[in-house]
Amino acid sequence: MATYTRWLTDLHTRARKIRAEVPGLGRYIKPPRKDRTVIVTDTSSALPEAVATTLPTGSQLRQIAMPVMIGEQIHSDGSADTNDELPIALAAGTPVRTSRPAPGQFRQLYERIAEQGYGSIVSVHVSGKISGTVEAARLAATQSPIPVEIVDTLTSGMAMGYAVVDAVVRGHNGIPATKLAQLIDEQATASQVYFTVPNLDQLRKGGRIPPLTGLLGQLLQVRPVLTLNEGAIQLMDRPRNFAKAQQIMVDKVAQAATQRPIRLAVHGYGNLDSAMELAARIDEYSTAPVPVLMIPAVLVAHLGLGALGVSISPELDYSTIL
Questions:
Q1: CA separation for the pair 162, 183 (Å, rounded)
Q2: Cα(190)–Cα(177) distance, rounded to whole angstroms?
Q3: Section 145-174 average pLDDT
Q4: SS3 breakdown of the chain: % helix, strand, coil, rounded to 5?
């Protein structure tokens, strides 16, 4: 996928440009590890593994996989078996749930980071209103040998992912962890996420919407548009077909672009052609190539097969780095 490759290349180019412009730092000179901050996140950020190897500063990025329960079997978000079995389970109506990672996983990761000589950690996670992940991180932080700042982004997908990428670049340049956490929180708050789903069944099963709302949606055959509002999944509109639902998301992107420079990402699950079409329609509004990425399992479990979404994030403010 050419657009995805261009997006990764753009991330790399931007990060190298920032490194070259930081006063007092030569192109290949790194601050000592004790002055650098590692960013820990979870797979609900939708960040591909390739990001860590693409970014010049990617050594300071760690991801913890979200557990996904398909029937009675526990899988890891992003693993090959999850990618194979999850769409089949959703199509067959098999119960799909997500769980938080164990606090012990976070504690072990924090300890390994400390052993590697880093001075601090910022742990950045999916909204606490749709997952208990951030609470697990908080519990582990109390036992960490180095300081850990916890950020509940109140969002998911690349609205969280872009904030993580920017934090990795900032943290490499010696910005204190407390300041990084503040910047991540501000950026995530300024981001937006919109999704459309074929129906409301999965949301109703997961208790994310009232049963009556789900039933009415099914009877009226609407193609609902949802958003994350203060961290919770919220029904925003009820268009009668997919074309109108997609247009609502395009309009939201266009409106956001009039207010500030933005970066975009499209998320899909089981609908690559529709996701590619949406990415092409909104490309003109983004300051960077628009990647098409898989919807994180923590959201797919609520949204269902065929969900399509877009995340809108503000462009990185270079004044917070230099």
A1: 12
A2: 20
A3: 92
A4: 45, 20, 30
